[in-house]
Amino acid sequence: MPPLEAVSTTPTRADVWNVSNAHCRVHYQLLAEAEPDLLCRVLNHFALQFLIPQQVNVLQQDDLLSIDVVLDGLSWHRAQVIAEKLRNLISVCSVDLQPAESAWAQPAQAAG
Asked: What is the rounded CA–CA span in Å between residue 97 and residue 28?
């Protein structure tokens, strides 16, 4: 049996869709039904891409969750693909994606 060898892994995932795309900081604003596992399902989309958010803010208002996520290290195209996957999650009402420079001013609000 061969001896165990250390495996080195890179902490970030290369953007295989277009390596020449500049990476940016993005802000996702989600509005969703308050479900116990929803936050895990949302954050799992980032974890599967080896991405760690810089900031996550969650606010429950009645039966809705307002979720804000800010992260760095992905191209705009990749951010849009992740946003589309988030929109397909059950219980998610809306997903807004914007560059983080103009973001984080106010969390997503329930209409009412």
From this structure: 5
Exposure string of 1-25, with b = 16+ CB inside 10 Å and e = fewer, is eeeeeeeeeeeeeebeeeeeeeebb
User: What 3-state DSSP class applies to 71?
Assistant: strand
For the stretch 29-52, pLDDT in tens is: 999 999 999 999 999 999 999 999
The amino acid sitting at 105 is A
Question: What domains, with CATH codes, occur in the chain?
Answer: 24-99 (3.30.70.260)
DSSP 17: T
Q: Which two tokens stand for residue 76?
A: 């705009």
